[in-house]
Design goal:
Blueprint: E1 8-12, E2 17-24, H1 27-33, E3 55-58, E4 62-68, E5 75-81, H2 84-88, E6 93-97
Antiparallel strand pairs: 1-3, 1-5, 2-4, 5-6
The protein binds copper (II) ion.
Length: about 100
């Protein structure tokens, strides 16, 4: 979910993933209310974006969904923007992958 005014190149460490789709939302409404109001349908990636990736373009005012295979390596991962200034300003974002059958 990109709530800034421009596209960010987002990288997820240690894995590859595929883009499922992107869906636009009303950014002004979100900034006023904190709620998501979609402005169009989810759109699958263009053919040139349908392979395995480690970085994707996350456009402004869109939710980009990805799918990845983490097993058997559950635990802590990070993602971040690849724009150097954004990497430097603490945009290394952690997330935890769990196996609901084990963790
Ligand atoms: Cu960025």
């Amino acid at each position: 979910m990109n709530i800034t005014g421009f596209t960010h190149p987002i990288h997820i460490h240690l894995i590859q993933f595929q883009i499922l789709d992107r869906r636009p939302f009303d950014l002004d409404f979100y900034n006023e209310s904190g709620l998501i109001k979609f402005t169009g349908p989810a759109i699958p990636p263009e053919p040139n974006e349908r392979g395995w990736k480690d970085t994707l373009a996350a456009p402004s005012a869109q939710i980009t969904r990805v799918i990845a295979h983490f097993a058997p390596y559950t635990g802590d991962y990070v993602w971040h923007c690849h724009i150097l200034e954004h990497e430097d300003y603490d945009t290394m974002r952690p997330f935890t992958v769990i196996d609901p059958e084990k963790d």
